[in-house]
Predict the 3D structure of the following.
Amino acid sequence: MKKSGYMFRIKKKIFFAIALSLIVISGCVEPFEISPQTFDDVLIVEATLTNEEKTQVISLSRTGILGSTEPIWEEGAEVIVTQDSNNTLRFLETQPGIYESEFEFAALPTSSYQLSITTRDGDSYTSNQENLPSSAVIDDVIARKITNDDGIEGIEIFVNSFDATGQSKFYRYSYEETYKIIAPQWNQFEAFVVSENPPSVDIRLRPQEELICYGNNASSTSILFSTTTLNEDRVSELPIRFIEKSDFIIAHRYSILVKQIVQTEQAFQFYEKLRELSSQGNLLSQSQPGFLIGNVFPDQETSKSVTGYFDVSSVSTKRLFFNFEDFFDDIGTPAYIVGCEQILTPTLDADRFGNSALIQAIQNNSLEFFNDNVGMGGVTPQGEGPFQMVPRICGDCTVIGSNEVPEFWIE
C-alpha cells in the first residue's frame, strides 16, 4: 500500500522556535497572523506528562531581548499539577528553571490533569485540563542499508506501529542513540610524573577503563506523523534516523531507543504550527513581534504573556542493536572521530625556564602514553623523549564517552 499521511521534523526545544519566529497564533487550527504586541518578556512552558512511571519534568524559561536565542530560566516558581481536581502533585526546582515531580508517577487514562504556575513575582498561570490519549505500541524498529536521495550510502532506521482501535492517530517520535567507542591508540599503561626536579617519569597500569566507552546522543528534532488521511491507524516504515556509512558512531556496535508519543489532536496541532513557524526564516526581518499560543493562560490581566504547551501523552519505546559488519564488509570501517596518525615524543629534559615538555603534557592531561620511544639498540633517539605520546582523545575514550557499560547494553 502506498504510504500517505504527512510527516515533518520539528525543533525539540520550544524556546528557540518561538524566539526565531516571533508570531502569534489565534488558535490551534486558525491561520496565524502577525500581532503588534511586544515580545520582550514571555513565560515559556515546556511540560509533558507521560504514562511512564518516572519523575516527570517541567521547564520554565523567559524570552529576553527581542530575537535572542538564549533562554532566561524562570527560577523560584511554584509548580503544581492537579489530578482530577483533588490530588495535588508538586514539582520542585532541581536546577534553574527545571522542575521535577516530588514523587515518581504515571499519567492515568482515567484521570484529567491541569498545570498551575505561580512565579516569584506573583504572576499565575493555569492550563486547560488534559487527558491521556489512547496508547499504541511500537511493533518494530528496523535498520536497513540504503542509498539516500543524495547518493549517500548508510543505515536508515524505520519504525512500524499499529493501533487496531484507530484511536491514536497523532504521533510524535524522538530517539536516543548509544554507541561503542574504542580508543585506537590505547595502551594498558599510563605515564606519570615521578619527580619534577630532577625531571623523572615512569609508567603504571591505568586505574580505570579507557579503551572501551559508550557515547550517547538524543535527537535534536522530533518527527510528527498523522494517520488521519490513511485507511487505518498504521505507521508503516516511517524513517526516523539516517546514519552515513562513514559515521564513526556505527564503527563498532550501535543501539537506538525509539520513543513513540501519542498526542491529542490539539497538542499535535500546536507542534505542527511550531514546526511551520520555526521554518519561516524570513520572519526574522519582521518588525512585529509576538508569541505562539498554547494551552496555558494567565490568570490575571496583569500577568505577563505565556506560551508553550502542557502535554499529557502516551509513550511506547523499542530498542534496536546492530554491528557495522551486519550491513557492511570490514573494509571501509568508519574512521575514528579525529585523525590519530600523529605520534609525539616530547622531551623530558627541562628547558632554560626549567620546564619539561613531557612532564607538562602529563600534568595537563593533553597527551597519553602510547609506547616506549626506542630506536636502534633500544636507545631513545637523540633530541626526543623516552615515550611515544598521542593526543588524549586517541588513547583515552573517556574524553568522548562514558566508561560505564549501560544497564541495557547487550553484546
